[in-house]
Amino acid sequence: METSNNSIADAVRPLPKDMSHHFSDVTKARAPSRMKEFYKYFLIPNIGQLAGGLPSASLFPFDTLEAQTARPDRWTPTPNYPDPDGTLSSRLAATSISNPTVASHVVVPHDAPTSDPRKKIDLATALQYGQADGYPPLLSFVREFTRDYLHPNVPYKGGPEVIFTVGSTDGMSKTLEVFSNVWVEGKNDIRERPGLLCEVFMYANVLTQAQPRGIQPVPIEMDDGGMLPYGPGSLEDVLANWDHSKGKRPHLLYTVTMGHNPTSGVLSLERRKELYSICSKYDVIIIEDDPYWYLQYPSAAVEEAKARNLPIPEPKIANTLEKKSGYEYLDSLAPSFLSIDVDGRVVRLDTFSKTVAPGCRMGWITSSPSICERILRVSETGTQQPSGFAQVVIAETIMGPQPEASAAFAARSAKDRATFSGWKMEGWVRWLAGLRGQYERRMNRMSKILEEHAYQLKQSTPMRGSDSDWGVITKTQLYDFKWPRGGMFLWLHMRFETHPLWKAAGSRGNLIDGVALSTALMIFLTRKPYLVLVSPGLMFSATDKIRRERGWAYYRLCFAAESEENVDSCSLRFGEGVQRFWRIKNVKELEALLDDDAQSQSQSQSQRRTQDDDGAQLVNLGSWMGC
Asked: Is residue 154 included in any domain, yes or no?
C-alpha cells in the first residue's frame, strides 16, 4: 500500500526544471565514455570477456581484506530534543556498550558467489575497473539511505540521483567545472566574469578552488541564523541591485547550512524557504555542502541559557515536513534544501570524511538526474570512482556479508567467522547518532570553560587610606560567542577594542590595530604554558575587504579533534592565555610577538616545530587541515 501511495504522490509532482542553460561550454560538449558503454555487457552472466583491457582478478595479490571494526553502538548518543533535567541522557547511556573497545571482525572475500552486482561485495569486483558513479553495492545502499531516509521529501518527480565522488573537495571541483566557464582577466570580457554567492565568512578552500577559474566571490551578509535573505547586503539585495559592469549576475550559491564552517550555525527550514524562493526568482543553482549535517546540537540553546542565567528557551521543532524517515534521530534534524527543491536546482555534497574517516576519500553528490549525468561525464574521464579498497571495506562494514557470501563464509573457523552481520541501515543511523553524542559533549565542555574566561575582573587600588575598605571592580569583556548549534567549531568574537593597547602608537609610527592584536594573540597562545593553536577569522573572510574590516575580530576553535578530556585542558589554557594577553601593556612586548611571526613565516615549513625539547606539545584547536 505504501509503495502504491508513493507512486501516486510521485505522479503529481512536477518534473525538475532543465538547468542545462547553466552548464559550461565544456560540460555541454561532453559525451559518454565509449569505453564505459561496454560495462552494461559485463553484467551478462557467464559472458566471455574479450573486449575490455581488464587485468585478471585471479592475479590480484589479495586473497581477503580483513579489519576490526567498531560496533554501531560504541558511542553514547545525546537526546534528539532539549533535555534540561538530564532524564533522557541517563536513559541513552544504557543503550551503549560498556566497553568501547569491543569490535567486530570484517572479512571481504576474494570472490562472492552472488551474481547480483548490488549485493556482490568482494575483491574481484571492488578492485577491478568499474563504473564512474560508484561501486554498485555501496552505491545502492547510499542511494537508498539518501532518497528514503535522509531526504524523503524531495518534491520533484522521480526524486534525486546519487553519484560518488572522491570526497567533498572533489565534488565541489566537479560542480564548478559543470556550471562555470573559465574566465581570464585581460582576455575575456569583464561582463562575462562568473561569480559565486557565499556568506561573508566561509570555508576558505572553496575560494582556492574557484579563483583559478576566474570566479569572483560575492559575499552575502549573515546573522546568527545564517545567510540573510532580505535587508541590506542580503541575497535579495545583492541580486536585485547587481552591477553588470563587475561581471555576470551570479548563478551559483555556495553554503554550508548545518554546522556552518566557520560560524557553527544551523539554517532553519523557514530561512531555507526564503533563500530558496530568491534563488528560484533569480535562477540560481544552490551548492549545499553538508559534511556536518548529522551534528546538530539540541542542547546548545538550553545549556547556553543556563550558563548565562537566562530563561530556558522554548524547544523548536527543526523538521516540520510531513514525510518522515522512521528514525527519530534523523527526523529531529533540520532538513536539507533538497526537501524544498521543486525546481531541481540544488546540488548537495556529502562525505564519509566526518562519519568514517577523511582518508577514505569518499563522498557523494545528490541532485537531479540530469545534473548527476553531467557530473558523471566529468568523472568518467577524470577520477572515475573512489578507491576500491575504501569502497569495499565501507560496504562490508555497513551492509555486512550478503546471503550467498554468508553461506560460503560459514565454512570457515569460528575465530574467522566472528559473527559479524554488518551494521545495516539501523546500525548506520545508530552510529551517526553516537557520533553526534561524542561531539555534542565536547562542544558543551569547551563552551562552559570559555564562558568562565570571557570577562576579566580587576579591582582598583584605593587612592586614600580612609578608602582602604573600598575598591572599584571593573569587568572587561574579552570575547563573546554563541554556543555552537552544530558542526565541529566554535566561532569566537574577540573584543580587541577593550585591549589596553587598542589603537596605541607603535614604536615604528604605526597604530596597533585589530589585525596586529589578532596576530599577536594567536602567536602568544602557541607559547608556553598555553600551547594552543587557533584559526584566525582572516582565513575565512570571503574578500580582502572583509578581512580588513572585521575578519581579524574572530577565531575559530575546533572541539572535534581532541578527546573530551583534552578539550577541557586546551580550552582552559586558551582562556588563561587570553586573560594574560589582556594584561600586556607594553607595545614592545606585543611587537616582539609580531616580529617573531614575520621571522617564522620566512622559514620553510619543514623547519617549523610543534614540539619543544622537553616534549610539551602544541595542540591545534584550529584544525586547519581538511576542514
From this structure: yes
Residue 496 lies in a domain: yes
Q: Are residues 250 and 356 in the same domain?
A: yes
pLDDT digits (tens, 9 = 90+) for 36-81: 666 667 667 777 777 777 888 888 898 888 888 888 888 889 988 8
Can you tell me whether residue 162 is helix, strand or coil?
Answer: strand
| Residue 204 contacts residue 625 (beta carbons within 8 Å) | no
Return d(Cα 358, Cα 627) in angstroms, integer: 10
Distance, CA of 52 to CA of 54 (rounded, Å): 5
What residue numbers bound the domain in which 140 lies? 2-57+110-296+333-408
Q: What is the sign, positive or negative, of the torsion defined by CA atoms of 222, 223, 226, 228?
A: negative
- Residue 436 within a domain: no
Task: Indicate the pTM of the whole model.
Answer: 0.89
Q: Considering only CA atoms, which of 249, 247, 119, 272 is closest in space to residue 183?
A: 247
CA angle 76, 79, 81 (to 5 degrees): 165
DSSP for residue 511: B
434 CB-contact burial (10 Å; exposed 0-12 / middle 13-18 / buried 19+): buried
Q: Kindly give, in sequence order, each residue whose CB lies less than 8 Å from that of residue 229, ignoring residues fewer than 6 positions away.
A: 235, 236, 271, 274, 275, 277, 278
Residues in contact with 38: Cβ distance below 8 Å, sequence separation at least 6, in sequence order? 51, 52
pLDDT, tens digit, 9 for 90 and up, residues 450-487: 999 999 988 766 656 555 556 678 899 999 999 999 99
Alpha carbon distance 260, 244 (integer Å):
30
C-alpha cell at 350: 556529502
Query: In 3D, which of 208, 261, 217, 231 has the Cα closest to residue 545?
Result: 217
User: Of 384, 408, 432, which residue is a domain's last?
Assistant: 408
The 10s digit of each residue's pLDDT in 488-520 is 999 999 999 999 999 998 888 788 999 999 999
Task: Give me the DSSP letters along 170-219.
Answer: HHHHHHHHHH-----TTTS-GGG--EEEEESB--HHHHHHHGGGTPEEEE
Q: What is the largest CA-CA distance in the chain?
A: 104
Chain segment 555-603, per-residue pLDDT in tens: 999 999 888 889 999 999 999 999 999 999 999 999 999 988 766 665 5
Peptide bond into 529 cis (omega under 30): yes
- Any idea what the CATH number is for the domain that residue 140 is in? 3.40.640.10
- Cα gap 120→57, rounded to integer Å: 14
Overall domain count for the chain: 2
Beta bridge partners of 541: 201
Our measurement of the distance from residue 462's CA atom to the centroid of its chain's CA atoms, rounded to an integer in Å, reads 53
What average pLDDT does the chain have? 87
Instruction: Tell whether 371 and 492 lie within a shared domain.
Output: no
Stretch 173-196: mean pLDDT, rounded? 95
DSSP H or E segment with residue 367: strand 363-367
Q: Are the beta carbons of 214 and 182 closer than 8 angstroms?
A: yes
Given this model, what pLDDT does residue 95 score?
Answer: 64
Same domain flag for 120 and 32: yes
Q: Which of 353, 384, 408 is the last residue of a domain?
A: 408
